[in-house]
Amino acid sequence: MSLSVFQIIGLAISIVGIAGLAIWSGTRPQSYGKVNSSPIVAGIIMGTLVGGSSTVGTAQLAFNYGMSAWWFTLGGGIGCLIVALMYSKAWRHSGCLTLIGIITQEYGPKTGMAASIMSSLGTFINVIAQLIAGTAVIDVIVPSLGLIPALLITAAFMTLYVILGGTQGAGMVGILKLVLIYVSMIGCGIMVLHLAGGLGGVKEMVAGIDNPDGIHFYSLIARGAGKDIGAGVSLVLGVLTTQTYAQAVMTGKTDRGSCTGALVSAFLIPPIGIAGILVGLYMRANFPDIVAKNALVMFTKMYMPPILAGVILGTLFIAVVGTGAGLAMGISTIVRRDILARYTDKMKDDRINQSLSKVIIIVIMALGVLLSSGPFGDTILSFGFMSMGLRGAVVFVPMTLALWAKGKINHTCTLISVIASPLTVLLFGTVWTLPGGLDPLFAGIAVSIICCGIGWIIGTKRKRILFFHPQEIDPNNYAVAIDSALCSRAPEIAQLLAKHLDIPCYDSEILTEASRISQIPEEQIVRYDEKFVVAAFDFMARDDRNLALPPTGAFVQAQIDACRSLASRGPCILINRFASYALDEETTVKVFIDAEFESRAKIHAELNHIGEATSRKRLRKMERIRTRYYKARDKHWGDPENYAFVVNATEGDPDRLAQVVTQRIEYMFGKTQSDILSQVNPG
Prior knowledge:
2 domains, single chain, 6-stranded mixed β-sheet
């Protein structure tokens, strides 16, 4: 049955109106700051959450199971309420722009990267669900079009929707879409009541449905308590762990405005599902042989006034488009801010950010079309619920603990959690089943709780002394030779250690002494410190007499001689410059000061006023050169077995670390008989 002229007019009015608003809002200046009012916040949330699953999918599931189809919109409303009451302020005051950023900030980049990938996978599955829902609408409007053209049209609209409108456009269009959805769905619900003769007629209609399987159409758990309650929990956790919804809250102008926007969403979303349920049941009673996913669209064509029917069809299509576009925008944000930003500082450029966002969204849509046309089936809500469950299993427990249990969870355990939990959901959702028909989300959340619970028991206390190889040292004749990783704060710790031991500390002084002994100009020794050089001319020399440039070996030998000379004057601390190689084993306490790479990269970025991505690249390059320089002469440089102990300086208080090292050295002097070894890993 083809569309009438008036239905086509209504369809054009809704699509052109919404598309025009998206394009207009896209021409306005875009910002990544906190700029959205509470209506825009609500518009972004509802414009994304109320889509194909809330409308077309709800009517589809109601066609088969009745009231249990309410869980998508009911769970979405409950999730928004929890966001407003508990998470909104915490998210905004976390200092992060993404939920994955909160996890990364607390547990480190490895956990953040794993969460980014797994969470994006869950969101992508929901994009597929929206593409499938879009084909349901197009299939009724243009029955002869075919699956692949319908997918391509849906994907094209989704891409244009977000590219032209952006975040603010999604909010403004979300408000208009919400108004049209309410008019459409409530109108459809009222029409069902009219056709059935009121609530009493609806009861009689449902009672007359051919029901050989004995389905309880008025039950919220018609598919089984485990499955339906699990679906509701999936929706709640999905709302709490989806970047698009969090992004709406984080970009609100004020805490109160963001909270209000989430509250408005919480109360406006659930009623939409009731109308979809009425339509699904009506079509089941009167047209039991139709394809379930077409129930809402067919009802609209058959029973609603022509122009309104066209508006509803256009709105349903845009609802699907808006949700898919919003989810794609969330994936794009995670990819740009939590993955790519680790490798390049160009993500700080708004123009590059916006251009890359468009490319990522196009790629997402292309992959979505490819997979949607494959053997995935067409049960829309099954995709939606699995998507929510995956995101919930990945993010919910680690993110919640990062907000309210800072510094208490072991990072390795959270890394295991964000990988094992979604895999558990996938396995129990596709290969195995839980007893009693329980939703696989419960298995995923259980794994996450167990992993993070173990992490809580273990704690995050870092080992400050990673290795301890005590030796007998004469307190009147010794030297402390400190080797260190770049940007591990070794000079600061060494100075404090010297203060505690009451001995001198030599750092740059080693280079001065090397120049005195070797007669190599000090400016050359400083310039080529820890670098390979060849015998040539020093074109950087300020004095013609210093043009001759010795080979690397001459610089190295000068530093070795300088370390021996300074150590011969009495107990002291020597920092790097082959001190651990130059001095006698019997009289030298060899120490290596290390720190986690991310901590050192951050220090390097601050010292050099560069972005963290650039800092990581430079630091890795500098470390390769520096390690090769030292190991060319000292094959055991950096090997823990070559040192009395190795210190982990990651985020530790330098003075406390110096005190710990002092204790270990005094233990080797034999000055104290207390069991210092039992304190090997203090906080």
